[in-house]
Design brief:
145 residues, mainly alpha, Globin-like, 76% helix, globular, binds protoporphyrin IX containing FE
Length: 145
């Protein structure tokens, strides 16, 4: 991510944070439209979950420029996601739902540059998390021994 992209994500996130729970609910709506089969994975009460998600997003967005802070936390969260039954391909669906929810919530603020910046941020984070949880793509592509 470029420093300008980090700044765009951080600036637009302050609006998302102020919106709070309705943003998270919009995200879940989009996600369950994309794949209703993911619904049973989410067992906790939505209000508790949206609180945790907002806190995690806040931490990630704040530390986008600081891999030393981002990596260990992302890796721990990714490994917990294995126990929820999350699969690698689900990260694509969550990325799509996130972009759609951002588009809806940020509306005119969701400029093409801001869109690109969030895509870059999610791709970075999802890459770190998938590598931690499922191994790197390169390893996956190795032929069987
Ligand atoms: C950038 C990617 C993601 C981030 C930062 C993230 C963050 C979080 C956080 C902070 C929690 C709260 C509990 C915990 O810390 O373990 C959580 C819970 C959860 N996440 Fe994610 N997540 C991501 C991707 C995904 C994906 C791809 C799925 C697949 C559907 C998913 C499904 C879940 C589920 C099922 C829970 C547990 C809900 C419950 O308590 O019932 N997450 N996530």
């Amino acid at each position: 991510m470029t420093p300008a992209q980090v700044e765009r994500v951080q600036d637009s996130y302050s609006f998302i944070f102020a919106v709070g729970t309705p943003f998270i609910l919009s995200f879940y709506d989009k996600l369950f439209d994309i794949d209703p089969a993911l619904k049973p994975l989410f067992r906790s009460e939505l209000s508790a979950q949206s609180e945790k998600l907002l806190m995690a997003l806040t931490y990630v967005v704040k530390n986008l420029h600081d891999a030393d802070r981002l990596l260990p936390v992302a890796e721990v969260i990714a490994k917990r996601h294995l126990t929820y039954g999350v699969k690698r391909e689900d990260y694509v669906k969550v990325g799509q739902a996130l972009i759609q929810a951002l588009d809806e919530t940020l509306d005119m603020r969701f400029t093409p540059e801001t869109h690109q910046a969030w895509l870059a941020a999610y791709t970075l984070l999802a890459g770190i998390m998938c590598n931690a949880a499922y191994g790197s793509r390169d390893e996956d592509n190795l032929p069987p021994p």
